[in-house]
Design brief:
Number of helices: 8
Helix content: over 70%
Strand content: under 5%
Order of helices and strands: HHHHHHHH
Largest sheet: none
Distance between the termini: 16 Å
Shape: globular
Number of strands: 0
Structural class: mainly alpha
Length: 214
Amino acid sequence: MIGTHAVLGVSAVALGMVLTPGPNMMYLVSRSITQGRRAGAVSLGGVAVGFLVYLSAANLGLSLVFLAVPGLYLAVKLAGAGYLAWLAWKALKPGGVSVFSPQELTPDSPRRLFSMGLLTNLLNPKIAVMYLSLIPQFIDLHAGSVLVQGFVLGGIQIVVSLAVNLVIVLAAGSIAVFLARRPVWLRVQRYVMGTVLGALAVKLATDRASAAPA
């Protein structure tokens, strides 16, 4: 049975990652501002399918690898903590650019919007690292099927990410105007997210939990 710690941990990682500007957010915001909320929602559908592709590929492979080589857990944990620390630095370093000041895009058909959302997600290294290095750290080999845990925890990440992205798609225009008039809020957002990601990095790096089976 998946514990509360794992659920909350994955939710926190998913929230920190989705609120850190990256290819997905930049594309969804740009498309929503230039072509409207419907276009942003269609693009988000493609992003959702990309999540499912990564989730399936990662879990079908990792369920076997973790059982065969439990010592790999330490390397995975340190890699994930290092990546979170890098994201924290990107958020906190001077000279950050707002994702809500995107470049103009030419209008696309619904099929292309969906395809571009899917492709943007599949080519997003942040998503690959999350499924291969972050989420697996919350899997407990003593809590039942590794495969089931992977899909459940990945499902939690997808729900969190899609919910936040949908809010961003619907509010992109208003947020862009708000931040343009109040740049101090942009800095606050960066500092808060950077601090949260940095704290998660330290926690993961210092966690002595083991993935080795009994």
